[in-house]
Write a structure and sequence with these properties.
With about 150 residues, the chain is an alpha+beta fold. The chain folds into two domains: about 80 residues, no CATH class; about 55 residues, no CATH class. The longest helix is centred in the C-terminal third of the chain and has 24 residues. The chain is elongated, with a radius of gyration of 18 Å. The termini are far apart.
């Protein structure tokens, strides 16, 4: 099922879904993930994707204080942003990505990965679909962890 980012944790908590590949907005100082098992693929800042002309919005960055007057905010990396920047979304011609600088408190970023209710998989047999899917996705998790540590060096 398609789950909106803003509903991801609520859908897990209410047992409408058992496992989600997606992203959660992390807010500094707030542990919203204590009740969940998480395979983190990456963390990213937020970026602004816009077709506003450079004379209206010069870039290369913009503060979060300016968001009420600006359009669409997306992760600064990911499928939609990459596709838009590479011109693979025909209706997105002229889009460019601008770094979104967190100039408000608390600081926020997106945590991208796989999320499930904490401890649930431990109660399931190894051949249960949820366990098998979690294990298969752990391969991607290892890839992203290795990639992130290479980038951080």
């Amino acid at each position: 099922m398609h789950v909106r980012t803003s509903d991801l944790l609520d859908k897990l908590a209410s047992r409408q879904v058992d496992l989600v590949c997606g992203s959660v907005l992390d807010i500094e100082g707030v542990d919203r993930l204590a009740e969940y098992d998480v395979q983190e693929w990456r963390r990213s800042g937020l970026g602004l994707v816009t077709n506003l002309a450079p004379d209206r919005l010069a870039g290369p960055s913009v503060g979060t204080r300016e968001l009420p007057s600006l359009p669409l905010v997306l992760p600064d990396a990911g499928l939609i942003t990459e596709a838009a920047m590479e011109g693979r979304i025909t209706s997105a011609s002229g889009l460019r990505s601008i770094e979104l600088v967190g100039d408000l408190e608390p600081k926020m970023h997106l945590r991208v990965g796989v999320f499930a209710r904490r401890g649930e998989r431990a109660r399931l047999p190894a051949d249960h679909p949820l366990t098998m899917l979690w294990n298969a996705l752990s391969v991607d998790s290892e890839y992203w962890r290795a990639r992130r540590s290479t980038i951080d060096e």
